[in-house]
Amino acid sequence: MIRIVEANNFSTRRDVENGTDMQRAAVLDILAQVKQNGDQAVLDYTARFDGITLDRMRVSEAEFAEAEQNISPEVREAIEAAAINIRDYHSRQMRQSWMTTKESGTMLGQLIRPLQRVGLYVPGGTAAYPSSVLMNAIPAQVAGVEEIAMVTPPGKDGKVNPGVLVAAQTLGVTEIYKVGGAQAIAALTYGTETIKPVDKIVGPGNIYVALAKREVFGLVDIDMVAGPSEIVVLADNTANPGYVAADLLSQAEHDAMASSVLVTPSRTLAKAVQQEVEKQLAVLPRREIAEKSIRDHGAICIVDSLEQGIDVVNRLAPEHLEVVVEDAMEYVGKLKNAGAIFLGAYSSEPVGDYFAGPNHVLPTNGTARFSSPLNVDDFLKKTSLISYSRQDLLANGQKIVALARQEGLEAHARAIQMRLDNEQN
Q: Is the keyword Lyase assigned to this protein (predicted)?
């Protein structure tokens, strides 16, 4: 049963991303083996961890064709419609290079250009995620990334989930490899005989994937080290308890470490939601996972007022925040920390997960205090552009010399002083 707690000192932050010493040691060994032995190490780990002996890692045209035959028209239509929404939303984030010229002749600017090659990790395991393909690949495409290589664990039949393949093919992503886990992260980082190295790796995964991404950061860029999924619902007595319970369970079914929290000043709603959670859990297909999540990491937090509830929410900085209160828009300005905010009874979290357009790759475990959802900027790099004029160098050169000598960098100072002496003579 989901517990009811008081607001004082309530926190859901969990130190889950760090892993155990044994897990980190295993990841370091996998990274080293793939770096040294390439394809063979990847194939060996795939056989060991996934129980699959692969003839080839890359998904073939025949496998794409088979996936098309095994997907319903309804799902294909949904994928295509979601892709349109996601592309439209992210296209509004695109920024352009800029340049400004001063009267003195100095020109300053910023070049904004896409990354060349990006690796996309799509999880497998307990569920398949076509939506992860859309959410990770589309902002990269909007940014102008030329090459997207996707990795995903094969199923027990040695194949990739047809929904994942159809989502990728819908976007024109055809470089897909049937490998997962830390070995996939290693392959994308170091490259193998089959898989070319990338500039950045994005996409969620299990603890081994998260640890591997953390270890290779610096050799490549990464999006974030994401923890288990989480939702906080801020609700008052106008909320439908059935809706609230359903939304809490929508996150609880992700995995046993997921966190689902209701924050409310209404004890009546709290009791009703507690009962609804039990009722809906009883008929949930992924009941075992959701039940453990609710028991270990779920809570109903009772607050004295919505104002106190907002304080609790800002302290939690949740990945997903639903605001199901009368006049929800009125409170948006006070909600400072959240990965994504869903306003009103009809803005259920799965609307954002799958279809509306905003990205579902969100900061977790309190990191929404300082980080953002995956977006187009994640696939762009900025280069400063400086064309300094003779006039400005003569006017400001001694200031630059003074700053350089203050820092004890005489060669810096002399690089400027030489020009000043030469130009003034």
A: no
How far apart (Å, rounded) are the C-alpha atoms in residues 300 and 307? 16
- Averaged pLDDT for residues 48-74: 94
CATH superfamily of 21-222: Nitrogenase molybdenum iron protein domain (3.40.50.1980)
In words, the CATH class of domain 3-15+227-356 is: alpha beta
Residue 291 falls in the annotated catalytic set: no
pLDDT in tens, 307-316: 999 999 999 9
Catalytic residue among 319, 322, 349, 360: 319
211-221, pLDDT tens digit by residue?
A: 999 999 999 99
Identify the active-site residue in 90, 297, 320, 360: 320
Annotation marks residue 319 as catalytic: yes
Handedness of CA 362, 366, 367, 372 (dihedral sign): positive
The answer to whether the predicted template modeling score (pTM) of the entire model surpasses 0.90 is yes
Of the pLDDT bands very low, low, confident and very high (cuts 50, 70, 90), residue 128 is: confident
How far apart CA 274 and CA 294 sit, in angstroms, is 11
3-state secondary structure 220-274: EEECCCCCCCEEEEEECCCCCHHHHHHHHHHHHCCCCCCEEEEEECCHHHHHHHH
